[in-house]
Description:
By secondary structure, the chain is α+β, with helices and mostly antiparallel strands. Helix content is 41%, strand content 12%. The chain has 21 helices and 15 strands. The protein has a 6-stranded mixed sheet, with helices on both faces. A hairpin with a 2-residue loop joins β12 and β13. α9 crosses α13 and α17 packs across α21. The longest helix has 19 residues. The chain is globular and about 70 Å long. The protein starts with a helix and ends with a helix. Cytidine-5'-triphosphate binds next to α12 and α14. The site of cytidine-5'-triphosphate has 17 residues, from α12 and α14.
Amino acid sequence: MRLSASFGAAMASSLAVCRLHMKGRGSLSKCLQKVDTFLHRTIGTNVVAVQEEREGCKSLYGVQAERQEQAERSVLISCHSRTNEKKFLKYLSRHGDINKYFFYESYGMYAVVEFANREGLVSLLEEAAIPSISHESMVPFKSRLLSLRNLGSADASNQQSGQQCQPQTTIPINELIQRLSREESIEQQITSLTHVYQLTEENSRLRFLVCSLLKDIAAAYFPECTINPFGSSVNGFGKLGCDLDMFLDLDGISGRNAKMPKSGLWLEYQMKRANSERAVTQSLLSVIGDCVDQFGPGCVGVQKILNARCPLVRFAHQPSGFQCDLTANNRVAMKSTELLYLYGELDPRVRHLVFTVRCWARAHGITSSIPGAWITNFSLTVMVLFFLQRRSPSIIPTLDHLRDLAGPGDKSVIEGNDCTFVSDFGKIQLPSNAETLEKLLCEFFEFYATFAFNKMSISIRKGKEQNKPEVAPLHIQNPFETSLNVSKNVNVTQLDRFVALCQESSWLLQQSDTNTPRGGNAGKAPTPWGLATLLMPSQVAGIKGRKKRRREPASERIKSLLESLKNTNQHKKS
Ligand code: CTP
Ligand code: MG
């Protein structure tokens, strides 16, 4: 989900100041390592190790249930940057044992504190005071977003704010280029990029906590509701700073899963009827959007975008710095999140390649945070998955194959769309493919540099090119709503840019002056090489300049492609 330009810019500046201070208690680290199931996967292409790891994988639902439960025992506290940590903890511990806490900065210092049980949380909230006000009026809505107040002055001065900071957003691209240039192989560059960009344990917890705070607002009307994150916040491909897509789930009371008694008397709730499910979604979101706007502490810039194909409420959650999109009745998107998560867990190369391609695309403006004719991260991810299905032997299975492996409990039909696929990772056998990340990256660019976009559609369901069913420059079949094109928004210009950059990147990776470490003089910035070169401003517009470089024999195909590109550029200019 994307933001308007002005909204995006406002949030970008606020995100720039976000810093995460992490403070786990030593005794907690073991327990946290167990919980951290999907954020820090091991690296490598050892097929046996990968298989073993896969069998130990938790389903997305398992991870979500665990995180949700943690979030419900947590509070978000705004505190002074010089808060005396010891005293702060001592004060909180009076209410109950604390499982985990960490500090971060976003418009000031915040702490996320998770109690070991709900009693601790309830006791803390019971003791919290109502702010006294003299001039302003105040909305009397209590939430788990609190402020630490201190009447004494001594604490504020005797503690240096010395915690180690971790950025909550990604490092600037120039810094990343330098960091990658110090690595010794392209393989290492790729894995290093993933580690720098992926969501941290704390960032993930904060995302679930924000959902849980939102749920408290929605629960005023719908006590049985849940609010779950979906999209890149949980599918394993999220980059620090990505938006927070949320799904208001009222399935428990929707009538969809209602069980009718077979005989005898029974009572049922009288419920108002509406013209369509879409109309119900719109009215729910409209009301919840108003509540978030009027009562939600820290929720600003609320926009109700109810006429979109998928109606949503968009806002910024200031204390976390997240840009939030709240949807309802969006169960297919939840399924595609689950599918992406599964693919990411099947083989570590999937996540590494997706992170690398997403980062490369962002560096060249192929993707954007502003809505428009750009390729989206979701489309790019599907393109990477398709490419990995097309390897020989394939690295990941087709969606049809995953459907064939499904058990009775996996059956899922949503609005007439078959969303069934296997949930038991252990049932999935993968052929042995040991291609390196370097090779895969190079081949990815070559694959799309020469793909017949004019005729063919990309389908991860079939794992094969399909004839394009409609005239769109780029056709990527929606995995579940198969009549839809995920990249309907993309225009010819954007597709051409993507292809040109794939051609260029493929060519660059085959040059020995690009694909070998350059080293660097001590104390000086290292010379960019390998993946770092690919993230630098594109040379596509200035191919002529590169003629002076000594060229190694590159693949004839890529050379001729570059030639044709050069000719097209010259043709356009004349
Ligand atoms: N989605 C979908 N069909 C689309 C667009 C999105 O099913 N045409 C689903 C996908 O599950 C996607 C999620 O909605 O992951 C959220 O969409 P979006 O925020 O656009 O993508 P993300 O994957 O979250 O990526 P980003 O980090 O750019 O937000
Ligand atoms: Mg998203």
